[in-house]
């Protein structure tokens, strides 16, 4: 019974894709934003003014992103060096903050803020 989850885990993405494809609207019932009366602009990105303060410069520079990438790579290397690979891989899921904050750092690096 303990090995059952190893057999069912690969099925979850497959079942999810099948459900998503079956429940998505077809070409006859799908509508665009314009058809709903929503105005769509191609310039949704708001340009950020050039940095005038040291904090703004640091936020818009790639230094924090590079430092974070180096820290993450070092941490992952440390995790794999101190324990077997199977245990290290299972422990990588305990720190999802790296994955959640990466897109925000890339946006800050590019100096673009999305309209809310």
Give an overview of the whole structure.
The protein has 116 residues and is mainly α. It has one domain (4-114). The protein has 6 helices and 2 strands. The chain has helices at residues 4-8, 11-23, 54-60, 63-82, 85-92, 97-110; strands at 45-47, 112-114. It has a two-stranded antiparallel sheet. Helix 4 crosses helix 5 (85-92). The chain is flat. The termini are far apart.
Keywords for this structure?
116 residues, 2 strands, mainly alpha, two-stranded antiparallel ribbon, 58% helix
Q: What is the strand content?
A: 5-15%
Structural class: mainly alpha
Total E-strand runs: 2
User: Mean pLDDT score, rounded?
Assistant: 77
Low-confidence stretches: none
Instruction: Quote the distance from N terminus to C terminus.
Output: 48 Å
Please give the count of helices.
6
Which strand order do you get reading across the main beta sheet? 1-2
Q: What profile does the largest beta sheet have?
A: 2 strands, antiparallel
What is the string of helix and strand elements? Answer: HHEHHHHE
**How much is the radius of gyration in Å?**
22 Å
Query: What is the 3D form?
Result: flat
Summarize the structure.
The chain is mainly alpha-helical. It is built from six helices and two strands.
């Amino acid at each position: 019974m303990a090995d059952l989850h190893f057999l069912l885990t690969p099925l979850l993405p497959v079942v999810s894709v099948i459900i998503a494809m079956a429940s998505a609207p077809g070409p006859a019932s799908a509508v665009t934003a314009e058809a709903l009366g929503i105005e769509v602009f191609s310039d949704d990105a708001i340009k950020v003014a050039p940095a005038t303060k040291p904090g703004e410069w640091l936020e818009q520079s790639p230094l924090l992103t590079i430092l974070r990438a180096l820290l993450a790579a070092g941490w992952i290397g440390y995790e794999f060096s101190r324990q077997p690979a199977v245990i290290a891989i299972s422990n990588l899921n305990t720190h999802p903050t790296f994955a959640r904050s990466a897109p925000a750092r890339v946006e800050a690096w590019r100096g673009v803020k999305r309209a809310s």
